[in-house]
Structure formats: C-alpha cells, structure tokens
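Final report, Chapter 2: Outcomes

The project's central promise was a pipeline that accepts a single protein chain and returns its three-dimensional structure in a standardized token representation, suitable for archiving and comparison. That pipeline is now operational. To close this chapter, we reproduce one record exactly as it appears in the project archive, with the input sequence first and the structure output second.
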Amino acid sequence: MVIRQSETYKGGDWWEWSVWVDGTEDELDGVARVEWRLHPTFPNPVRIVEDRASMFRLDTAGWGTFVVHAVVYKKEGSSARLRHVLELHYPDGTLTQA
C-alpha cells in the first residue's frame, strides 16, 4: 500500500489537497481505519478516517510541503506505517518550497 495525493492551487500560496491509501482491493478491504499525522502546525494534526469507499481519503488545505505519515490499522489487528512527501505545484508546474 502507498499514499497518493492530489492538489489544487487556489491562489495566494494556498492549496487544497487530498491524500489517500492506494493498494489492491484485498489490501484495502482489510483496512479498518487510517490515522493521518499531519504537520504539528495543523489544527487537530492527527485525524482518523474510516471510509473504505473513499480509500481512506483525507481532504484539507495549506501552504507548505511536509512529510505526511499514516498508520494503517488492519481489521486482523496488525498495522503498517506509511509516509509520503506532500508536493504542491503552482499552475506553471513548478514545485513550492517548504
């Protein structure tokens, strides 16, 4: 399983972005919940998503890049840790700096 992302530049160095867990149908069916760990400057930086239909998608917004961490809790009792470097692109394709 891996973390995927999407982002939309809203102007003024601000992006709306989403992260979700991607994997095989069997892998995702075995997930109970995902605990997303955002940068500590976010309000409520630890967020739980239990929606399998959305691939445990988290929607939020911000201005800078950082490493997004996730703990994937499986129905059978184990867990897996994932990490993803959030990338935010300007409309011309250039990458914002952290």
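Archive annotation: The two ends are 26 Å apart (CA to CA).
This record, like all others produced under the grant, will remain available to the consortium after the project formally closes.
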